[in-house]
Design goal:
Radius of gyration: 29 Å
Number of strands: 2
Strand order of the largest sheet: 1-2
Structural class: mainly alpha
Largest sheet: 2 strands, antiparallel
Helix content: over 70%
Length: 321
Amino acid sequence: MKKFRKYIGLITVCLTVMLFVTACAQNGGVNKPPTGFIYGSIYKFIGKPMQNIMLYFSNLIGGANGAGWAIIIMTFVVRMILLPLMLNQQKKSTTQQEKMARLQPQMKLIQDTMKRKDLNQDQQMTLAGWQRELYSKNHLSLTGGMGCLPLIIQFPIMIGIYDAVMYSKSLASSSFFGISLSSRSISVTVFATIFAFAQGYLSLVGIPKEQKKQMQSMMLMNPIMTLFICLSVSGSVALYWAAGNFFSVIQQLIVTYIIMPKVKKEVDEELKREPITEVVTKEKVDELLNAKKASPAQSEQTKQLHENLRNRNKGKQQRRP
């Protein structure tokens, strides 16, 4: 469960969005804009302005595909605004991954030992303490270097774009290269899912083999959620999702082939100045396990000693006149 900690924010946001957009789709979208305090405020201050911008671009571009291009342009603008923050967070995450790769031998010792079923509570606490000490002494974050700020910022923006599309008749009823934006679209869903899978695949390029095994299952989470969401909403919203995933692929290319090599070089130079601190060794693990094995023997020895003392005292009592 610990290795999934850094994905909890992503899962929470995605599930919330799924519930929200599914409700929008079921309510027909364009009938009544939200009026509640939270969603009503998001629509008033974010959704409505975005809706006006999209309509402006749609009229400016004109033609049958104007609304679709307006959605893509709006998505691009939002992504460009968030790009510096997202790249900064991914740089931190990449730095964490590189340092974790150097700690992998010690982490593997702890993880393999924790899998043993014959450990007592004290030994489990000792192993957990070693893990915390390993992170602390090597200046690593237990959360994986992945902050939730970009996700928190994106949440009202995503809902705002959904509102802009779902509560505008002209946007929701338009088409994009023959694809209806007012009903579910299998083709847009396929593209969105492919882009999500491509982004996940690129995120594993250059990752150490041991870490890649841990991340492969999570790589499938985004495409699966993308598939479910896009099948639950109108083509206009699915188009926004597909465009967002396309820009995520571009962002991941920047991270994988520009930021990651630079980060690896920086980490190598940092570790030359301040090498990895060794906290866990095979000898320490063996000593911890042998302490448990010695415990029953010591207990048996103590029990035998008490038995001998009782027999000796019993003999002395029998010899008394």
